[in-house]
C-alpha cells in the first residue's frame, strides 16, 4: 500500500470548504506558546531503496536483530508467520482498524471478526468471545472487573505466577475503584498454591495463568474445583502463549468461567513489544456482562446472510460510569491477522506446532540438566522453563549477547527470591544446532 499525498490543488479546495485561509489557520485554537516555530530538521529525501537500506542499518543496531538467536519469551514469542497472512493483510479492505459501525460497507471486516470469535471459542473451549481487547494484560484486568459485576463482591485473588506486568496492569485498573486484590503464592513445584484460598473470604473471582509465567502447566481442573467450592466465585484463566492449547486441555473443559490472554503468537510480529491482541472468551450465561464488542450473524430483508455489530453498549461511548468497558477502539487488524493465521494453520497445524515447541524446549531443558543445571520447579512445562545458574551468569549472559545469543530473562527484578534463575524459551524458530550452541556456550 503506497502513501499518496494530496496535491496543492486538493489542499486549497479543502481549505476553501473549511473556511480557512491556509493550513496554519486550522491550528489557530492552539495557544501560540504551544506551537513549534522553527522548521523540523529532516534529512534530504531517500529513494525507496535507500530508505529500506537505512531502516535495515538501524535495525541491525538493535539489541536483538534478526540475526540473533533469542531464547527469551516471557509473554512475547517469536513464531514463523505464514506468508499468506502477510499478503492477505495488505488488501485494502482489511487494512484499517476502525470499528465497523456501518454494516452496509463493512461486511468483510464484520465477517472476519465473526470468524475470529468462532476460532477463539474453539481454541479456548468457551461459548462466546469478543474482539476488542488491547492485549493480554488489559484483558485480564477487564475479566477481573467482570467477575465483580457478576458476583457483586469487591475482592479478587490473583496468582503470583501470572505475568508480573499483567499483574501491574490489574493493579492500575483497580487503583481508583476501591476493590481489593489479594495474591496467591507460588508452590514449590512452580504452580499456584490454592491451599489458603478459603482464608481470603468471599471472592468475586480467582485468576490463574496456564502455562504460567514460569512456563509451568497449572492443574486447571483441580483449580476449578477448588475455586467453585464457593459457587459465586468465578474462575478466570489467563495465558500469554495461546499455542499451548494445541496440546493442553482448553480452559473451558477445565471449568473456567472466563478465559483471556495474549494472542500475539498467532500471526502478529513481536514488533518491539506491540501491538498485541487481547483474546477474551466466557460462558454464555455471562454474555451481557462482557466488555468490548461482539459480532453476530443475521438474515437481511432479502434473505441473505449478513454480519452486524450485535452487542456494544452505548454507555461505553456516552455514559462512561455505566459502561461494562470503556474500550472504544478495536484491535481489528490484529484480530484479522490472528484469524488468517488460525485458519491457515488449522487445528492439526496448531497441534503439530505446539508439539514442536514443547519438544524443542524439553530438549534444551534436558541438555542443561545433563550439564549440571537445575530448575527450582518440578511441574511440567510448555515452551519455556526456569533454570538456575551461578551468581556470575550475568557476565556470561552479556558475553553471549555479544555473540548474538539472548540467553533468557533474568528473574531477579520480578522475583527477588529467584535472583539466580533465568527464564528460558524455545520456539520453532530455533533448531537443534541453535540449542546445542547455547548449551555449549553456557557450560564452558
Short description:
The chain is an alpha/beta fold. Helices cover 33% and strands 14% of the residues. The protein has helices at 8-18, 48-60, 83-89, 107-124, 136-151, 164-174, 220-227, 315-318, 332-370, 393-402, 432-442, and strands at 69-70, 128-129, 155-159, 180-184, 205-209, 234-239, 258-262, 278-282, 294-299, 305-311, 384-388, 405-406, 409-410, 421-425.
DSSP helical segment count: 11
Shape: globular
Structural class: alpha/beta
The CATH superfamily of the largest domain bears the name: Type I PLP-dependent aspartate aminotransferase-like (Major domain)
Q: Give the CA-CA distance, first to last residue.
A: 49 Å
The number of domains: 2
User: Which assembly state applies to the chains in this document?
Assistant: single chain
CATH domain fold name of the largest domain: Aspartate Aminotransferase, domain 2
Q: Give the C-level CATH assignment of the largest domain.
A: Alpha Beta
Q: What is the chain-wise order of helices and strands?
A: HHEHHEHEHEEHEEEEEHHEHEEEH
In the CATH hierarchy, the architecture of the largest domain is 3-Layer(aba) Sandwich
Name the beta content range. 5-15%
- Mean pLDDT value: 91
Overall radius of gyration = 24 Å
Low-pLDDT sequence parts: none
